[in-house]
Backbone:
C-alpha cells in the first residue's frame, strides 16, 4: 500500500511538473514574440484600429461586456462579475498560439502565453491585437475576422460612425461568433444586444463571475 501511494505521489509530481512546464513554454513564447507583436499593435493603433478609435465611451462599453477587469488584471481574471473563464488577453493568446493538443490541455500553454503578453505589451497594444484577431460571425464570404473590418463589411463604416444599436450588435456576436450572423440578425442576437444595452446603461449587473450571458440583465 505504501509503495502504491508513493507511486501515485510521484506520478502527481510529474503531472504537476508537466503542467508548469507547458504553461512556462507559452510564457516564454509570448515574450519571444513580443517585439513583433508590439510593432503590429502600434501599426494598428496608428491606423486608428485600436480601442481609442472605437468612439467616445465605446471602449469602456466593450470592456464592460467582454472583460470587465481588463485594465486591472494580469492576464487572468477570477474575480470580476461577468468575466467568465476567458479574458481578452487569453482570447488573444488562443488566436496567436493555437496548438495541436486538445483545447483543455492547450489552455494551459495559452494561460502562460497570456501572462507573457501582459509582461511585454501595454494594455492598449493587447486590445488592438485582439480587436484585429476577433472572430465576428458569418459574413458574405464566410467567417469574418477583425472588429474594424467587420464594421466596414457589414455597415460600410468604421465603429466610431455606427449607431449605438449597430455597435452593440458587433459586441454581441463576440461571445458566440459561430452562432450569430450580423447580416441576418435574429431574435437571439437581438436579445443578446438588448441585455448588453441594459448593462452598459447601468440598469443591470452580471449575476456573478461566470455570468457571461448576462442572465442578471434578463428583463423578460
Residues:
Amino acid at each position: 500500500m505504501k509503495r502504491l501511494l508513493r507511486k501515485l505521489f510521484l506520478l502527481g509530481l510529474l503531472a504537476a511538473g508537466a503542467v508548469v512546464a507547458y504553461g512556462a513554454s507559452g510564457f516564454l513564447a509570448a515574450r519571444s514574440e513580443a517585439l513583433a507583436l508590439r510593432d503590429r499593435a502600434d501599426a494598428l493603433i496608428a491606423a486608428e484600429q485600436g480601442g481609442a478609435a472605437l468612439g467616445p465611451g465605446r471602449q469602456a462599453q466593450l470592456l464592460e461586456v467582454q472583460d470587465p477587469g481588463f485594465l486591472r488584471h494580469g492576464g487572468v481574471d477570477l474575480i470580476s462579475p461577468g468575466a467568465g473563464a476567458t479574458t481578452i488577453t487569453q482570447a488573444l493568446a488562443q488566436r496567436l498560439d493555437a496548438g495541436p493538443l486538445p483545447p483543455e490541455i492547450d489552455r494551459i500553454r495559452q494561460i502562460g502565453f497570456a501572462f507573457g503578453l501582459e509582461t511585454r505589451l501595454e494594455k492598449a497594444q493587447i486590445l488592438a491585437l485582439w480587436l484585429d484577431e476577433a472572430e465576428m460571425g458569418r459574413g458574405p464570404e464566410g467567417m469574418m475576422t477583425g472588429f474594424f473590418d467587420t464594421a466596414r463589411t457589414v455597415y460600410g463604416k468604421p465603429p466610431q460612425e455606427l449607431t449605438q444599436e449597430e455597435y452593440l450588435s458587433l459586441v454581441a456576436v463576440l461571445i458566440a461568433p459561430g452562432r450569430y450572423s450580423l447580416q441576418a440578425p435574429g431574435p437571439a442576437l437581438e436579445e443578446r444586444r438588448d441585455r448588453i444595452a441594459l448593462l452598459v446603461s447601468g440598469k443591470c449587473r452580471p449575476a456573478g463571475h461566470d455570468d457571461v450571458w448576462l442572465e442578471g440583465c434578463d428583463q423578460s
About this structure: The mean pLDDT is 89. The two ends are 58 Å apart (CA to CA). Residues 135-206 form one domain.
